[in-house]
Amino acid sequence: MRSEGCVMQCKISKSTLAVIALLTGLLTLVSCASVPAPPPAEETGTVAYVEGVPGGVIINTLSVTARVKAIDKVNRKVILVDASGKAFPVKVGPEAVNFDQIRAGDLVNFTVTEELVIYMNGEDGSSGDGSAGLVALAPEGARPGGLFAETRQITGTVMAIDLEKHTATLKFEDGTAKTFPVRSDVDLSKGKIGEQVVFRITEMIAISVEAP
């Protein structure tokens, strides 16, 4: 009992692009000597579900590469250049123990993956809503890099089913309600008021640095 793939994919893409915007477009541009631009960003998406079964999985991946233009070791900042040739600064925290290994000309690879899993949880099931995070950094002496991941779970309760429009209205714990279109292959006449729909969203950012 989930939204049509195109609707959910639009939401995922906006969320994914927001992460990249934080790394690029929202940062102050700087003017430095030019260096070769890295390859353009690549975005892929997949949708998987079982015919007639409510729910499914949507995965979007966005890969972005930037080149190190300059390094400010005192303030632990690097100036990166994206595929369009624009330069922007990125602050590197003290937890990045391999900061001194970064060199001008290195390529910094960002891979942002977002997975949305939707499934039915029956009636009055335990929601388990909340979030959990994971941070894994390269060990000292290795090439700089790391993995950052967060999983959030939100549960909605079916409040209304419209067989004619083929939609379901869900109410969430914060009191909000939203009506979703349901896939045409799902038999809504078998749906029940009070059933729970679980949305589990996992966002992961992998960062690696490689020599040119």
Describe this structure in words.
By secondary structure, the chain is mainly β. The protein has one domain. The protein is built from one helix and ten strands; from the N terminus they run H-E-E-E-E-E-E-E-E-E-E. Strands 1, 2, 3, 4, 5, 6, 7, 8, 9 and 10 form a ten-stranded antiparallel sheet that branches.
Identify the notable features of this structure and list them briefly:
disordered N terminus, ten-stranded antiparallel sheet, single chain, 212 residues, mainly beta, 1 helix
Largest sheet composition? 10 strands, antiparallel
What helical percentage do the residues reach?
A: under 10%
Query: Strand tally, please?
Result: 10
Tally of separate helices: 1
H-E string: HEEEEEEEEEE
Helix and strand topology:
Elements: H1 5-23, E1 42-48, E2 56-72, E3 77-81, E4 87-91, E5 107-123, E6 130-137, E7 145-162, E8 167-172, E9 177-181, E10 195-210
Antiparallel strand pairs: 1-2, 2-3, 2-5, 3-4, 5-10, 6-7, 7-8, 7-10, 8-9
Provide a brief overview of the structure:
With 212 residues, the chain is mainly beta. The chain contains 1 helix and 10 strands; from the N terminus they run αββββββββββ. It has one domain (5-210).
